[in-house]
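Lab notebook: predicted structure, single chain.

Context: the supervisor wants predicted structures on file for every construct in the current expression panel, including those that have not yet been purified. This is the next one on the list. No modifications to the sequence; it matches the entry in the shared construct table.
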Amino acid sequence: MRTINTIKMLMALVVVVGLTFVSCKKDNNTKPVVPVKLEDVNGNFSGKLALTQGTTKSESTIALSAKNNTISIVDLPVTEIVFSVVKDKVKAQEVINKLGKVKYDVSYTAKVNGSKTAVDLTFAPKAIELQFPVDNANKKVVVNVVAKQAGTYTGKTKALKFGLTVDKVTVDGTAVAPFEAIFYDFQSLVKK
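Prediction complete. Output recorded below exactly as produced.
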């Protein structure tokens, strides 16, 4: 009887030890993290743009491209900027129609983060200069753009995220007052 108990205990021990070497199906399916490179940021992106001015919020779909440390936005929404300058709604809509698509390029400096999973982007935005045709005259509008925080390109999701702020607008050299800042939040733009 003792030998049977010893055999049973030995079998139980073999089973327990054997179970520790059994792997689950999902154990080997994890892909190794591929380190990102600076040039991974280059490409075409599309996604959501959230615009906020005061308590007014809107969202739209936007497309842009990144190449040679420059992000190019082919159709930057300027409705909020126009309505900040032109208070008459009919005239403001005419200005928007005449402006058409506003192209904006913003330069950045890229740096791979410490864990090599993302590229951090530091922006150097320039002012946007526009000509507003209002009341049979062209008004020179200068839109000051700042980047209050760095952007990020994440290698795993191939997503780009950054924000820009319009903090001041001048018309023919005179600051628009009162003016509420306009926040452009480019949310998780996915690489095509």
